[in-house]
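Section 5: illustrative case.
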């Protein structure tokens, strides 16, 4: 009798005893030869994401938080794909320590601390005598500094280093900054950082700091066990690759579900008349709105935006021109966000603190362009998505009863504690705003601004 069978028999006896004790007589008798369903013990997966980016043919690797280790939380906390790259292997165990390799770093599970952290992969490569090959093949400097705490002298590199958590993430510098054009490189214990000093087509722009894909190089040198490198199949539903859209905690899709607040957000705002109507409704109902206007249209009606702020509403960021951010070079993404903010401050005649960016069309989040999140982090924005979309724009400019009831229904079906409602400043949407507010109040939900509820 195999161990498996023994366990299953034992489980059956155990289950029957339990069922009888609990008086569940209907569950107790099983037809001979058939076993009840009993869950098998395995690590409970709390959160998992599938990443197809570093494998072919739709395969990829999972990164998970479970009872054994929490690599997904570490991935998010350390800066995601911008700092670690994507996973290039499965979780594996070597000498009782758990690891998972990424393109730019190797994560290890620190059981004492109860958290994952970067392993000193570059020191491992050094110990294996691979410095010469790293230099020859990838222009990575050999170890030249050992006991100093000195970190980079280059201003941009220093900023990146500090931005992403410094020594606890990258380890200590183990070389000087070497090389000049088109990039210079500095070696650390856990990663190698590269700073681009010239513009090269299809490469990071001049002035960018990027970690080098040493995790991938280490694969070529046989650092990871072969079985860890076999790609996995994506699961279905919640375990599938679609989940990767929501990889980071600073993407806000709803507020605290234990608090009786909702967030009415109004995008684009091309039509000043509809913005004014929304402000009138809000004044009458004593509620607060969060606007996500496009920067370009702000100066069409400065007095409206001044009024919105004076009446306690919030004006967040929806970019200057409403271009899809995932198609743009990094400098332009930054410009889109900063130009909207600057325009707003000019229109208001004072400084104004923003906390949220809503990317036009949700692009870069739905299709997971990691640059958007990284840039938002750097500029101090969270990404504001939504939990209910009125889809009123589909009927614009209709305000007949069919258009209104459909639009309203899209929101009412999703109205609950913490809901973020997406609307646009268009006739159809603003016409149903009073009904949304009535329904919210009936459910005991107060519409407040996103910053009031979440910052
Ligand atoms: Zn928009």
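Designed sequence:
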């Amino acid at each position: 009798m195999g161990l498996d069978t023994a366990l299953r028999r034992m489980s059956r006896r155990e289950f029957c005893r339990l069922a009888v004790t609990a008086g569940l007589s209907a569950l107790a008798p099983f037809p001979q030869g058939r076993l009840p369903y009993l869950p098998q013990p395995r690590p409970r997966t709390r959160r998992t994401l599938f990443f197809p980016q570093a494998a072919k043919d739709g395969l990829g690797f999972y990164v998970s938080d479970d009872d054994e280790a929490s690599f997904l939380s570490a991935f998010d906390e350390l800066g995601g794909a911008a700092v670690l790259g994507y996973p290039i292997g499965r979780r594996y165990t070597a000498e009782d320590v758990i690891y998972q390799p990424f393109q730019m770093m190797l994560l290890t599970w620190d059981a004492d601390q109860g958290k994952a952290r970067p392993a000193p992969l570059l020191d491992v490569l050094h110990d294996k005598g691979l410095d010469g090959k790293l230099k020859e093949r990838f222009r990575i400097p050999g170890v030249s500094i050992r006991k100093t705490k000195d970190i980079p002298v280059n201003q941009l590199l220093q900023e990146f280093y500090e931005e992403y958590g410094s020594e606890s993430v990258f380890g200590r510098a183990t070389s000087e900054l070497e090389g000049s054009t088109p990039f210079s490189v500095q070696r650390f214990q856990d990663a190698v950082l590269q700073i681009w000093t010239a513009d090269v087509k299809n490469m990071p722009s001049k002035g960018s700091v990027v970690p080098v894909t040493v995790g991938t190089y280490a694969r070529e040198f046989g650092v990871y066990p072969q079985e860890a490198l076999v790609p996995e199949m994506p699961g279905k539903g919640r375990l599938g690759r679609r989940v990767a859209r929501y990889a980071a905690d600073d993407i806000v899709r709803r507020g605290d579900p234990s608090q009786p607040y909702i967030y009415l957000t109004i995008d684009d705002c091309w039509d000043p008349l509809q913005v004014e109507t929304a402000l009138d409704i809000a004044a009458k109902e004593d509620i607060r709105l969060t606007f996500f206007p496009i920067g370009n249209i702000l100066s069409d009606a400065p007095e409206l935006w001044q009024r919105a702020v004076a009446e306690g509403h919030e004006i967040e960021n929806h970019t200057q021109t409403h271009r899809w951010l995932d198609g743009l070079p990094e400098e332009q993404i930054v410009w889109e966000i900063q130009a909207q903010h600057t325009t707003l401050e000019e229109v208001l005649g004072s400084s104004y603190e923003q906390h949220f960016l809503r990317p036009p069309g949700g692009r870069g989040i739905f299709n997971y362009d990691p640059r958007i999140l990284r840039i938002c982090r750097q500029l101090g924005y969270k990404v504001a998505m939504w939990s209910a979309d009125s889809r009123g724009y589909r009927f614009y400019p209709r305000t007949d009863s069919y258009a209104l009831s459909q639009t309203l229904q899209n929101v009412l079906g999703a109205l609950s504690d913490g809901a973020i409602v997406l609307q646009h400043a268009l006739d159809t949407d603003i016409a149903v705003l009073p009904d949304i507010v009535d329904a919210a109040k009936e459910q005991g939900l107060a519409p407040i601004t996103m910053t009031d509820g979440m910052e």
